[in-house]
Specification:
InterPro entries: Prot-tyrosine_phosphatase-like (IPR029021), STYX-Interacting_Phosphatase (IPR052449). The protein has helices at about 30-35, 50-60, 85-110, 135-155, 170-185, 190-200, 210-230; strands at about 15, 20-25, 40-45, 65-70, 130-135, 160-165, 250, 260. By secondary structure, the chain is of the alpha/beta class. Helix 3 (about 85-110) links the parallel strand 4 and strand 5.
Amino acid sequence: MENDNDMNIDGEASEISPSVWLGSYSVLSQQPFLDAKNIKVIINCSPTCKFLKELSASGMSMSSDLVILLLDPPFDSGKVTDDEMPLLNDYMSRFNRILQNYISFFYNLNPEVNNLIHKFPQNKPLNISSPILTGNLKEQFFNINRLLKLLKNMNNSIGTLIVSPDGNSQLSTGVAMSYLMDNYNFNFDASYTNLKITRPLIIPLNYQYYDDLLIIENLKKFYQENTSIKQTNNVLLTTNCNLKRKNDYDYIWVGGSKRKNVE
């Protein structure tokens, strides 16, 4: 039996930071682990439809407060086959609703949001219109890390799982590195070195490969811009904030059921 304090589960997942795990698809079928670590955010770093098939086959229990993001920069819905479309439609119907509810309650309607997360480049707002994150990789690094920071400020007990087929892909490595950059102010080399110590099997990023080069360049841009933003906006109130819903006295809780406010 696995000890709840173990850093690794048979090499399938590695804890890169408190409550943040980097792992393989096989972790999706390990419900006791997901429950014990209170995994409420999953970030997939592989082709969308490939992941959705694995998710469907895993038998994973998917609660109504689970956020699943699919980081898939080249995703094109026009290339989804007829066989894959039902899985995609079901995913979008369920998880876009959860995502937009969280963004609405905890960001758009939250007067304390500027005290909870740092700003975006050019002071842009958090704007994730779909749980499938496509296009500019640097922008998605900002979206992922700001969203994680916001959710953790609402409930710091939630766990995050970053997944790819074997847990060692270049894109999942990039997401994990961006998290270390954001939370520990590690630069590119320091974030990679620390991640490599925690998960030795990650695939090195190679400047000679175009896809790897995109990850490298966007990670470095993310680090530079994020550092600059924090230097000019370096005081945040990080105390957890529970946002009261409009027109009633209920609270919405990340990673938990709705609770009644007693006044």
